[in-house]
Design brief:
Length: 179
Amino acid sequence: MRSQPLAFTLNGKAIGPLPVPEGMTLLDYLHEVQNLTGTRYACGIGVCHACTVILDEPGGPREVRSCITGAHACQGKRVRTIEGIARPDADGRPGLSPLQQAYLDHFSFQCGYCTPGFVIGATVLLERLARQPIARKRIEAVVSEALAPHVCRCTGYVRYYQAVKAVILATPGLTMAGD
């Protein structure tokens, strides 16, 4: 199999250029080359969203399903995985983002397999709301719309949605009064 050089930013760190086989998926690259295994392989056809990562673009972040995206599609781009969502604490040790903490506080998962994809989807939503706040009365609809593509086989949806709603309500600037 032929290789091509790949260089991009992964979780804030410049990667490459490294030779990467043509046709290698982003998911396989993350697992096999970068040893980042938090992004999950589930359906393998981009339907369940367990493999979702964030592609940071000038217009804002967007979800990308890494099981159906070639690694070379990230050439020169900025990618964040579930490992890149956590925030360091005051001492510089790995800590949880407010969203990850809310998932724990709300017991938002059962087996946890789909959780990385839900965290990524909700992170994209929170970052979008930071740029374009919504009316408080629309929170449930917006959360449902943002997380609808994500599949949880344990049916933990209610608690995922409750946790995201709690973070939105607790974060200044994500909502506004009115219609």
